[in-house]
Design brief:
Layout: H1 2-5, E1 21-22, H2 26-29, E2 30-40, E3 44-51, E4 57-64, E5 66-67, E6 70-71, H3 73-85, E7 95-100, E8 104-110, E9 115-116, H4 117-121, H5 132-151, E10 154-155, E11 164-166, E12 175-177, E13 184-185, H6 204-207, H7 214-230, H8 240-248, H9 265-273, H10 284-288, H11 301-311
Helix pairs in contact: 5-7, 7-9
Bound molecules: adenosine-5'-diphosphate and magnesium ion (MG).
Residues 38-39, 41-42, 44, 46, 59, 61, 93, 109-112, 116, 162-163, 165, 178-179, 181 line the site of adenosine-5'-diphosphate (ADP).
Amino acid sequence: AAEASRGRGASGLLSDIQTTISSDAFTDHYTLIPGKELGRGKFAVVRKCVEKCTGHEYAAKFMRKRRKGQDCRMEIIHEIAVLELATASHRVVNLHQVYEMASEMVLVLEFAAGGEIFNQCVSDEEDEAFSEEDVKRLMRQILEGVSFLHQNNVVHLDLKPQNILLTSSSPLGDIKIVDFGLSRMVSSHQELREIMGTPEYVAPEVLNYEPISTATDMWSAGVLAYVMLTGISPFLGENKQETFLNISQLNVSYSEEELQQPDRTALSFIQTLLRKQPQDRATAEQCLKHPWLQFSEVQEPQTAVEEQQASSSTSSSTSSSTSSPEPAS
Ligand code: ADP
Ligand code: MG
């Protein structure tokens, strides 16, 4: 009964929301920016808009209530409920308002002006691609968000570069996790097994129809770190079958030069996540303590003081501003 009153069904979907669903015409309150489609998925179109009474910019996610002949309003309500639950985290996109029409619902979301990290992951331009310091900072933020979700028993199940947005692209801002369309509540007494997610980022247990857990997201976090560092999707094959085979056989190359820095901490980080057995993978909290993600002198002066005093005596200004490997002495 307690479970039911909290609105958590066997399917891992939440059904209670606080947000008022407005039946006003969306366009009475917002102006859609013409030609500004921010993105689209299978059942949603996201468009930039401006709230008339404030002039503030938002991203409006238009979601069809019927998909493949099925009523999916429950799933949209769940997505709203998860966004509400995550308002306490800066790493998750904020939900401003919700509108409902005959066949659609509109989630008015905080606008992430920097777009998907995907664009910078795959960029060929040297100056557009992330530096290792960027990747570390963004990865830390992603893990903070994921840690928050997991502490609240939410698994995202679709962590990928298209669902990690940036508040600004240059200068590089902060990340916002979006798209809780596949997210679920995990509980200790209900097993969750569902085929879903995006082939390239999906964990072995999902392919094998084995139980899904917070560790399922941690696999995807490992794939994310790999892609952000190298620009290469580690398991992507010529087709879905090949991708799935690569994942289930853990067929991944660690020979990329970005993973071969002298201390190999990035490599070690990724290897704590890309493990076949979910229980062998690091948790989000453990990842945040991994040596690779510890603050460098340049970024966090206050944490570097002790290190600096311990390691060098006089050369305070010579600490490098990049992570490029120093010639071995
Ligand atoms: P879907 O469930 O269809 O994948 P998403 O929530 O992932 O929907 O949104 C689709 C795309 O729209 C995202 O990948 C992103 O490019 C863009 N988008 C979504 N939310 C925002 C936002 N708050 N600010 C800017 N762009 C967004
Ligand atoms: Mg998406």
